[in-house]
Amino acid sequence: MRLRITFSKSGALRYTGHLDLHRIWERTCRRAGIPLSYSQGYHPQPRISLAAALPLGFIGQAEIMDLWLDQDEDMLEILKRLQSSAPPGLILTSIRSIDSHQSALQTQVQYADYEVLFLDPVDQQVLSSKLNNVLSSTSILRQRRARDYDLRPLIASLQLNLATKDHPISLTMRLSASPAATGRPEEVLSELGIKPEESRITRTGLILKNT
Amino acid sequence: MIDPQQIESRLERILLTVQKPGRYVGGELNITVKDWSQTQTHVAFVFPDLYDLGISNVGLQILYDQVNQRPDALAERAYAPWLDMEAAMRSNQIPLYTLESKHALSDFDIIGFTLPYETLYTNALNILDLSSVPLFSHERDNSHPLVIAGGHACFNPEPMHAFIDAFAIGEGEEVIHDIIHVHQVWKSSGKHRKDLLLELGNIPGVYVPSLFVPHYLEDGTLSHIERSIPNAVLPIIKRIVGKLPPPPTQFIVPNIEVIHDRISVEIMRGCTRGCRFCHAGSISRPIRERSVIEVVDAAESAIRSTGFQEFSLMSLSSSDYTHILELVSAIGERFGKDRLIISLPSLRIDTVSVELMDRLSDRRGTGFTLAPEAATERMRRIINKFIPDEQIIETAKAAYSHGWTTIKLYFMIGHPSETIEDVEAIARLCNMILTEGRRLIGGRAKVHVSVGTFVPKPHTPFQWVSCDTPLQIESKQNILKQKLRDRNIKLTWTAIEDTLLEAWLSRGDRHLSAVIYTAWKNGAKFDAWQDQHRYSIWAEAFAVHGIEPDFYTHRQRRMDEIFPWDHIFPGVRKSYLFQDYRMSLEGLVRLDCREQCYACGILPLFADLRRQNPGEIWKCPDVSSPARIPSWRQA
Prior knowledge:
The complex is a heterodimer of chains A (about 210) and B (about 625). Chain A is α+β, with helices and mostly antiparallel strands and about 210 residues long.
């Protein structure tokens, strides 16, 4: 049986990377006594797959993971056991069973939504004019890891949300997140003149292709 | 003063600028976070090395559990920040803090260092400095935490005497409660810090350096230790527990990958083999064992509470555990289907060990480890680890035929009276094992050879001997490098500078405190890390203080020399050690002392504990007479 689980990742776990998170889920399943399926081959691995790596330091609000079990189990029971075995910082938000023959979870991801808060006061007007520059450009050529690429087509949307009574000023953006074309919010922030360590970035959602 | 909220908000700005920030944030599964303001005594336990290493330290885990089980005290943890994090903390005015509550270390009542090895000393100083706690014990007042230390290195506490207020000698499970009790009584009395130190000095097993003054002879060796108060107690007798308490099972599970991602369950403490180079074997007597059922239950409950895939059955010599066969069968029965990786380190060199490992292990990427320590039978008699050559070869062959492709071999050079032939024999033995391997499994056969350099450690039969000189070490290492050239042999060795540093720090007297301070001041830290060692800093620090380092390392000792560590008593008598040293010069072997008690001194000293814990759990003979402290030990 293949289960699709959504969860949030925050607190100290902000500073745990993708591979370590994989190991944490493996251990959580072992503590919860959940009989994961194992891959074939010389080094059998438990079958867990995470939709998209969450960069170090980001909070994840609605991360997605698939688990494979050897036999059918009661989903609510699985959810309960996983939650009570999860380390501080991981909260499960939903579980459903999906068709085992669906394509790999990673290939289904299309977009990711992010929200950015600022640790220091920002000049709203400066930010807003920089933002308009980004949006009005047809292409933004940048380099990452010694490769040239165009950031602009990876930005599906970008907006500044002014402070309200109960929410500070923030940026929200939707970036392309398919395996072949992934936009990184730090790159957008860099275009806006903001250092990632001076902001708090939350991935608020992952948008999957219709399957 | 800086509060935890301020620390957290400053941290958020630097964490993404350093490597592996997960080291510095805590929040792991199975930690204990108590209400700070509702708890009387606050203890910070510090492993003064990187989180990646310190997180799996069982000693610290035991103490953490002991303290947190008390309703009136809390224990939190701190580790040494790596260089990038230290720089970021210093430039952002962040003091060292505990991972649980983010309180600065200076807010605690007690800072407890665990010092398993000597190369952590400069890190301990750096941590006090990062915490704004005065480095020198005599500079601290009532507003500062009490600074204590324990661990194997503390069996010679003198090099760190200037920085540590009190050392706990021996096993910490019980003494930590005595220390907390004394601290609580003192704190509510409102008395001066000096009174706290006096009271601590009355706890058995606690060494308060400021209560004693050493006097030296003209040649620089010790003449005697003077008590600076009349009722200070000498010698300091190590603490042990009569019966091992239940092992910790709620291990803290790191959120990042660390060096040992596994659970350790201690199956026994102590060792009866009497290898003459072995510090741990000498200071951790007597042997006390846990029962098979206790070990298996603990392993099961630890796996359930942590989810680790790997566990290690820890002891100094697993093969000597009385019920090793039953233990391995019980583990197979209980965990056989669970895809776990189980390791059983420190096995004897014999084919039984291969069969044991065969039943436990799935062999993934691991080699089969053998530690002959020396390659000639003559040398193995001298070090009292006697194994015939054929037995080593047969064991290696058995491991190759049971599916291991790599044999890991541990040797030491620099043993007393070692000759070039003894060193060449190491290469010969390794090549012979590889040849056997090739015959059995062909080109896949590999040998990994790790060659350490012997350091004569305090409280061992070899404490009288001198270290090899750098020139001797270099030429011996060159022989090995020349003779171990096969591409399927991998040779690693210890850098000469690392050996010298370890030797100075482990054999030093009180004069070493000034050297350690100066070396730290000039940038020495993470001395256990090869990429960090700065030999010139240490050489300079010795020179600044006019101290000749060779005095500590390259000098044959007089048989009646008083050593800087003689007033710390691990239970094994100095006369016994000397007798054993004389036996080594004659090539005489002392067999496992479970066969026959050689009266090392442990049993009369701890006779009361033995009587309360009769029978199988100790390997010493049963006793009926009460304990006595040997009279020659009393001044």
